[in-house]
């Protein structure tokens, strides 16, 4: 077998989806861990800072994605649709796009990918269930379905081609939790950064699935099986609880958005 | 389905068993979360403070219990026998009484109950076993048996009637741990209050079983499956360890009260 | 510890509920395994055949039950309410009655009991779930709740007093399956007899829970954990399938009686 | 909720992929269970027999698929690519095609689908592992990946829209096992027919995953969780063992096609 | 990696412990599957039949064991102490001897071993527990302890050196079951032969642990995890039940030999 | 049964392997918990401090070990080989030696032993797996194999003779972690001392297996099943991470010493 080195610092790191919410948060943070940070998105990325490379690409454009992966040591793949949308954009960006990315990684010899999966992969579990990354998936919409596809693709590329992935089922990563559901799902940008870097630098990850959440008191997810990553969240949603509860004092358990972990995703979407 | 709202603050909260040890501890604490705190017991409850209603009732008295539930938003059910006793009082207060309470809750449309169950539901596990709320019950006496009945009743009223319950298998809630067994089972009144309120206000609980214990270093119980409640104990028995150990320096493992989690309950009781 | 002998044949065997459907089926069958078969019920038992003793008793009558257990080597306890009924008869016959029986067994030194529990202890699992006797109970009514009480009582009397019990969660034991639900739940009288005798004579049973069902092609229950009993059902519901399906050609999954394992029990009963 | 009736016999049944190997096997067999059997494929279907409707359609053609589902009571979905192939045909037929099928089912009110999934969904487990339908997927190629997508889609349409699916992870269904791997994976056409019909007519299936295999002595898959379907395979690969072993007397465990359950799929495919 | 071929028929097969009870039973049977059957024991092996080689060796004699393995394709290792004995003979034959055998196998490139382990590796489980090969070991004496050592050695030589082993935890293999315990543990010589040959010829076994028992109605062991071996027992202890039960009509559960799966082993042995 | 008292402080405590690395660390620490600390090793132990007894003994010398145990209340057994070595020293010190120790403990009525097992008992699990003490062992060499033997011996002496043991699968106990693997495996001497004392004084331990590791952020082991010991590690490897990572910036996942939990042990040793 060829060598499969995992460094702590990277020559060139690729961040896809760099113009999105999490992409903007990670852009300045990831720069510290690499010589060159290649940034990509379908949207405008502004101007390149020192050490940055901007390379616009639609994920469904195989040639563009192959060009994107050239010379890259590792990938943080945030790109694609990140909300519930109609089938076509999800198919193109999240299914065709994920395939393009892994094929390009394989051809260019990239060995490690952090894949932004989503808690919506298991959004149809109830809010009174505590689940683990080993439980069967229950996507809550087309978006969650496409993320489950991405995780399975990552498993295949590990079993078949030895490319390692950490699939991070991101909860809700914002400056602060916005509602009571996020008391369970919230993860700070600092915890996100630590999780991404642990995923990139842990010596062995195979294909690991982990929920991206803070050190929250309310928890639906048990990450025990991913403790080898060397990551523990440090920020908690608890300080935000009084304000969040005050703004949403009464919830109705019969509302599917309250009953299921996926929240409003379980009842929104392209289904008419 | 009718709406099933869960508020953070209650119009009228019912506390049964309000004259007992835990009842006295919770009485002033629960007042902060409701407009009116209805208190009940078979024993004398003193005089009503502002915002309190006193309503004496024996739990085996169906009519009295039905009156008790009228106009109530949620219940903290500490009432009934809380020690190992002969069959008749346990039958009346804990079995007939629990049935009366749930039937009254159903008729009056009460949607959420915190049920004071007990670690004695699983008292015949050994002290070198770590168990979870999903493991089969092993009651250590008639008291534990009656609490297992109450939990199953709660499950039935959830599956059949949608009434949600958190069954709290209380360890030992006292101002301080009194002996070495309580190093594992102890829970402070502050942690009890936080657990009761989390159980009343968590958006979705279905029927959740949780062990009521502190953040103790010695632990027999794994509450992972109940982390959705949004409760983490904050007080530990550890600071009390030196004093407790000094007073009970030698234990004999062949004593059933040492060997089993139920402690002395496993060998006391009405069996002659 | 005193000797705890388990014979293959019994001096005196007690059959409670002997006037009921299963009691009538077992009455002539059990006679072959004992010198004396004591029969009891609240209903009329006819006249005693050779080797039979008739002893009428209400299970809630402690004194009568104690008299019933005198001189008995082992018990097949079918007695009590076996359908969904109001609380009072279930409380008296199945809860108070079960307690009386076990207390009497303890005082008279009886060492082995076969307890007729019911599949309604877990009737609120869905018909597309396969469960085991170790899964948490989900009773579908007061009847199932009382049977769960009986099982927990049996566990207590084993852990505390060494009395062994096999709790048989009987499905549907009739001459033939009557409807499509019984394709899963049906057990022939021959299989019932074999299960009862295996339960009485297996050298070690502790407290074993087993589902009483035939060798049916449709199955909701996995009895792997009870294979030490030395029982395998031999009769199948499959030959009855064509007739049963013809008579009930269309089922509606949205009917709770179709959706849940408990069948019609999940929507009948004393709740108005 | 609207009624959700499951009949034993169907007005109009749709069989997709009817021109393929399994489609040809099932075509005459399914006719017995419906008034009209609608057959579809991209390939030629010959002429319609009595009670047959032929409707050619490419699965990636949404309009054609919607037309296909009109007036249909239930679907046996064998259509799509069934071998390891390049990404484009798999994407079109198995991913876009599966989406089109479920969307059409939803719009036309179809309530039950049998989905021909594949053992290649878990082909990267070793041949010395016995797995169950609840274990995490490990697809062995793009084909297995696309079938995992189909299963997750089925789960979503059940959780969200109440459409029930049995996903049958077909092993190897041929007149006879062709090689030693098929001693584990073989399923006769008779067993396939019985499994399809059990899946169509079982009263409640939700989304059930089951491995389609015979009553083989060599087994990698434990179907315990699907025993509610009312299906037991009756044919075994064992009588074919002598001939099969004689033709393939020596296997090399270091060959991935021998080591992994997926057999040759784990090393063939579009990856160059 | 070097090729790792598994044939169906062997050039030279080694049978150790060939003079013991099971050795004598297998000696004529194994001859059919190899050109040369090398037989070894510390005891006299009589004269060599056609195709047999006799090679006397004490397992603790490393040089003799290395000579034994020369030119061998696979091993059926029955050799060593097979009853509870003092430490020295068990240490020499079963611990040192097993190490010698595996080291010799490694040096001579032998790729597959069937190791006669024992149910006494788990003899301290109770007779009312059904266990699997994945459960923690609980040896019932020095003999069982030495067999657990052999299994762990086999695991090591697989993980480290790729030598595959099937560890068969033999129950009781005799012409007929001799007592009631053997109703659970008995395995016929025919089933033993089939199990040994399945273990030698299954394409992939890694290190598989399987209980060697018949198709008995009374069962303590669940072999689901070993079904990939392609072995199902065909003979049952059940026809022997009447005679066996008649000869041992009453058992005392308080006797450790009745209570535990290991039977008399749990109370015999060198401990004074 | 004889009394089985567990004190908090000991008359005479035996520490074997007292001249080794951990022995030297524990020697001054254990003195505080006993009147007399008996120290033993094959190597020189220097001169006895106040309250110390020095008793040189080779563990394979049964008579010497029996003398060692005389008058001892409890044992901390660090003695034996603690690195990968050839078979003979491991056989003598770790297998024969462990047997001698337990036999001597049995004869002298010693009731509690802390056994220094090793993470190398499970060294062939991958570094991306999180395992528990209940998972099957996978030793990474002869050393790990001998420690698995010791654990099974401890289980036997508990089940058969009631001697309690805590088997501590020590990770890496040094003043500081020396390399990146030790970020997961490191345990401070303070945490080791606390773990040893918790193991000696917990009221009931039976045979408990626990991993000896710090409160590290990177973790491969889940000690939930041992929380009854009353031990939580307090020191973390995390402060050492920057220095350790700087010194070992790139790891190659294809190196078995990186891939498996056992680290370099999986490829060193006496196998040529």
UniProtKB/TrEMBL annotation, chains A, B, C, D, E, F:
<keyword id="KW-0560">Oxidoreductase</keyword>
<feature type="domain" description="NAD-dependent epimerase/dehydratase">
    <location>
        <begin position="14"/>
        <end position="174"/>
    </location>
</feature>
<dbReference type="InterPro" id="IPR036291">
    <property type="entry name" value="NAD(P)-bd_dom_sf"/>
</dbReference>
<dbReference type="GO" id="GO:0016491">
    <property type="term" value="F:oxidoreductase activity"/>
</dbReference>
<keyword id="KW-0520">NAD</keyword>
<dbReference type="Pfam" id="PF01370">
    <property type="entry name" value="Epimerase"/>
</dbReference>
<comment type="similarity">
    <text>Belongs to the NAD(P)-dependent epimerase/dehydratase family.</text>
</comment>
<dbReference type="InterPro" id="IPR001509">
    <property type="entry name" value="Epimerase_deHydtase"/>
</dbReference>
<protein>
    <submittedName>
        <fullName>Uronate dehydrogenase</fullName>
    </submittedName>
</protein>
